């Protein structure tokens, strides 16, 4: 690390502002060299995005300072009530994710065609139960589970979905917003411009519910990311990852050494850690809300949403989808920390020995130990706490279903469990799914958040999973 980076201080004052918090995050990322990632460059000019240039999204170099929708029109009566024209031989369908048969159809489409690595070796394999959990939060809109079928056979060949979310961008709260996800077009129908039709159709359906903003992520660069994240893997079952070609054997090391290096203890050491229960919902929601306040863009949660997203016992997510743990102060009974992780396996193709790898993904977390000021001791305390929480999450995930790796979506967290050399950057392999992903905000805000042609310089002020 360059000395000047080491010397970088968070703030000359002790007050932790949003800007100094951002500096802290950057410093955390730089601390282990994670800031030295390769640049991800914008692949083409804004004008070359045939579809996206027609949409209310900011240009890459848009430095307009005005907050607010790009397209201010919110006239529902002008929204077409009929779906967009579909390609000949295909038809729109609204899928019922409570219906086992239809849920299985979505599962099959995604499991065979969804996000994969560049060599098509690994592909996300969301379980049907996971899809129900992800698509049915409180207030979900059935009409936003949009599919395309082949007219003659009825086969489902494309899917896109949205769920309602509340988002805060700096000081402004958008109570009515949607999050678009699970965009998928069957491999045989690629490059036929079906994606713009799917996006326009789900947008139309959101407009009909008086929703005019959306947040979404994409593995490719579309105009214009408000933040960019990078997947980071912490191997757990190194041998299996090595066997399938995901992890390399570092020069000068041996298989035995790598296996030992990634080994985990069986027991967590963090005191007062226990599984989250229904009685914790209110406190967890409060802690999460306060924790997210220091990010410029974050999702806001109601108690019902916290229950849905974090509690294993609710009717939808019952089963092995999400695990949430809390730390409770035994005297005050206050929840001081929590973390959650979910299970998302990937299918493996072309390997004689394995057809799946399992993975745990870090989901939401929060801690009272976040730095309330810019002092070094506050930051050290925060980093130490994150380290304890993540180590516990790793051990618990490993004990539950022995995932092959633990995945972090927030770059600054890497330094928190980067003791020893446990954390593998995704650069160790080409088999990342996908390598970076970008947060986008449809029709707001006009002002990009510290946007820059060099995406790796983007603000990491976004916390939404
Ligand atoms: C993503 C996917 C639906 C794109 O389909 P496609 O057949 O390659 O693209 P189409 O011909 O239908 O449409 C091309 C347009 O869609 C845009 N597009 C492609 N992928 C996109 C994405 N993930 N998000 C938003 N827009 C996207 C392209 O930029 C292009 O628009 P442009 O002319 O303005 O640049 C398809 O590759 C797929 O199903 N991939 C696997 C699942 C996946 O990656 N889903 C996205 C999750 S992030």
From TrEMBL:
Q: What is this protein called?
A: Glycylpeptide N-tetradecanoyltransferase
Which top class of enzyme applies to this chain?
transferase
GO MF annotation terms: glycylpeptide N-tetradecanoyltransferase activity
Glycylpeptide N-tetradecanoyltransferase C-terminal domain location, by residue? 243-399
**Record bears the keyword Iron:** no
Cross-referenced InterPro entries: Acyl_CoA_acyltransferase, NMT, NMT_C, NMT_CS, NMT_N
The enzyme's E.C. designation = 2.3.1.97
Species of origin: Schizosaccharomyces japonicus (strain yFS275 / FY16936)
UniProt record similarity statement: Belongs to the NMT family.
One Pfam short name: NMT_C
Task performed by this protein: Adds a myristoyl group to the N-terminal glycine residue of certain cellular proteins.
Q: Which residues form the Glycylpeptide N-tetradecanoyltransferase N-terminal domain?
A: 69-229
Q: Which GO CC annotations does the UniProt entry carry?
A: cytosol
Record note on quaternary structure: Monomer.
Q: Which GO terms describe its biological process?
A: protein localization to membrane
**UniProtKB keywords:** Acyltransferase, Transferase
The reactions it catalyses are: N-terminal glycyl-[protein] + tetradecanoyl-CoA = N-tetradecanoylglycyl-[protein] + CoA + H(+)
